[in-house]
Amino acid sequence: MNNDFVFVDELVSGIRWDAKYATWDNFTGKPVDGYLANRIAGTRALCAALEEARGEAAALGFGLLLWDGYRPQRAVDCFLRWAQQPEDGRTKLRHYPNIDKAEMFEQGYVAAKSGHSRGSTVDLTFYDLTTGELARMGSDYDLMDAVSHHGARGISQVEARNRRCLRSLMETCGFRAYECEWWHYTLIDEPYPGTYFDFPIRYDDRRQVTRAPFGI
Q1: What one-character-per-residue DSSP string does 82-116 give?
Q2: Between 34 and which of 68, 74, 115, 208 could a Cys-Cys bridge form, CB atoms 3.0 to 4.6 Å apart?
Q3: CA–CA separation, 57 vs 138, rounded Å?
Q4: What CATH number labels 5-187?
């Protein structure tokens, strides 16, 4: 791994994660190229900002759950290849019920060059520190639909309030929101704004991994 990249859980205390693209539970229906470990990686600058966000969230009774951080370019290329394959319907109802595969790119839900590949973008949500339950946000992660947009209609007052709370907290801690996805935030002062990395996410061979990731 690049020396300025780390596993987020090593620098951000109490973080939870569920690296969806390392699993079968994502819009492609299988693990994605470059995700060889169920861990979330990112730049040290990202981690510093997330540690601040974690503290702010804790004051509100929330913890942070991460779904994705650094994304190798080979994973983005995998998305492109997947979008060109015939529709099999396995993930459509859950992730893109009202659009075709190709429209994911046209409508901005998936990009051929992703900010995630620069190492300072994160997909995340709140969870309740008392119950461990995920905060209600009005749509699932990676639901590519208008209901996932900031300011979407048709969600409850509680769900809208939770989205506003997450956005306000993240912006206070130095992130900018992405209007089409309530879960997606990029560090404003990202250290590599013009670089798209492609090294895989994998356990460090120098370490003995003895515990499973703390996911949902």
Answers
A1: HHTSPP--TTHHHH-TTS-TTHHHHTTSS-SS-GG
A2: 74
A3: 19
A4: 3.30.1380.10
pLDDT tens, residue by residue, 17-50: 999 999 999 999 999 999 999 999 999 999 999 9
Averaged pLDDT, 103-108: 91
More confident residue, 24 or 3: 24
| pTM listed for this prediction | 0.93
- Structure token pair of residue 173: 């801690």
Question: Which is catalytic among the residues 106, 159, 171, 181?
Answer: 181
Tokens matching residue 59: 């004051």
Residue whose pair of structure tokens reads 């051929």 in the numeric block: 112
| Sheet of strand 175-178: strand arrangement | 16-17, 62-68, 121-128, 181-187, 175-178
List the structure tokens of 158: 């509680």
Cβ proximity of 36 and 202 under 8 Å: yes
Domain spans, the chain: 5-187
Is 181 assigned a catalytic role? yes
